[in-house]
Design a protein that fits this description.
By secondary structure, the protein is α/β, with parallel strands linked by helices. It has helices at about 15-30, 40-45, 65-75, 90-100, 110-160; strands at about 10, 35, 55, 80-85, 105. It has one domain (about 10-130): Response regulator (Rossmann fold). It contains five helices and five strands. The radius of gyration is 24 Å and the shape is elongated. The mean pLDDT is about 90.
């Protein structure tokens, strides 16, 4: 995720009204970098913009949500997927998770709240991953610097034993 605080979010929803509802809800929650599409093919035409998160319906006109997921993962495996579907079918949810979706949310009165909560969790996880990488780099650099200092003192003691006598 390139920009953790303001991820690029693609919405793929073939219902125009629900599509606008999702976009407005996300923008209301300060998730302003959103692009919406009515078809999976249109989303894939813009996939080189490297979305951080794709929110999509499972059943779309033309290609399915799984087709979009598979095609995107070939180019950008780090893109997160959230399925937002009216299909209350456990097999569809399992299938979407099998292909790497991070969540499957049923369209109901709580769906938009669940969606923003999930996006918040994705952002938090990515921030923790970046922080962990920085921490590991800092520790590694510390031990490299410490090793260099020890080598310098050992070399000085070896080449100038009278000046650098430790006893």
């Amino acid at each position: 995720m390139e920009n953790q605080k303001y991820p690029l979010i693609f919405i793929v929803e073939d219902n125009t009204v629900y599509n606008k509802l999702i976009v407005n809800h996300l923008r209301l929650h300060k998730l302003t970098r959103t692009e919406s599409f009515l078809r999976g093919e249109d989303c894939l035409k813009n996939i080189d913009r490297k979305p951080d998160i794709i929110i999509q319906d499972y059943l779309l006109d033309g290609m399915t949500g799984i087709d979009v997921l598979k095609a995107t993962r070939k180019k950008y495996p780090e893109t997160e997927f959230i399925f937002l579907s009216g299909q209350n079918d456990i097999e569809l949810a399992i299938n979407s998770m099998k292909y790497g979706a991070c969540d499957y949310i049923i369209k109901d009165q709580y769906a938009l709240k669940k969606l923003t909560d999930k996006i918040g969790k994705i952002i938090t996880i990515h921030e923790l991953i970046i922080s962990n990488k920085r921490y590991k780099l800092g520790i590694t650099l510390f031990f490299i610097a410490l090793s260099v200092i020890i080598l310098i003192f050992a070399s000085l003691a070896f080449f100038f034993p009278k000046t650098f006598s430790f006893l």
